[in-house]
Amino acid sequence: MFNWLKKIFSRKTESVASMPIKEEPKRLEKPCRTCGKPIFYDPSWEHIPNYCKECKRKYQDEHSIPKIMKRKCLDYGGKGYAYEAAHAYFDYLFNQKGIRRIYAYTEDYNVPSQRLCERLGMRREGLFLDFVSFINNPDGTPHYENTVQYAILKREWK
Ligand SMILES: CC(C)(COP(=O)(O)OP(=O)(O)OC[C@H]1O[C@@H](n2cnc3c(N)ncnc32)[C@H](O)[C@@H]1OP(=O)(O)O)[C@@H](O)C(=O)NCCC(=O)NCCS
What we know:
Aminopeptidase, alpha+beta, 4 helices, single chain, 26% strand
């Protein structure tokens, strides 16, 4: 009985000893370029990250669609398509849906958008100073935009 146990124990010891030792992956630390939180990485990786997962995801969410839109606008801008589409939509809203008034907001520096509103016959009704904020200043405070309001009534639509 004792010999039998000894045999099993020695076999087990041998098999564990012969197993290859798995090296712990080397983990280094660096700060995220956006928020400064630590990022842990293995120097053997092909790509060493500069941003933490949360900041990377936030950046992708904020930039993926505008990038595509910008490219598309460059391809099709300045050809009258925006006017044609907006004109047809206004016509539908006023004449089919019985809408009484349409208004539009645009930033004071967005000249193409203001020209489009004016081509559609919209009136410039006012300028709201420091109206809305989409981004922050470098010091972290909200950066407020000046917003122009345009509008047109059904009775003004021809
Ligand atoms: C706002 C926006 C849609 C306007 O687009 P746009 O290309 O300037 O508008 P249109 O398609 O109506 O094109 C009008 C221009 O094409 C010119 N054009 C050329 N051929 C034309 C044609 N056959 N018929 C009519 N206009 C023509 C017009 O003269 C006009 O130029 P102008 O503005 O220098 O006078 C565009 O600038 C845009 O997508 N901007 C980014 C997003 C944005 O700012 N959205 C609004 C947020 S408030």
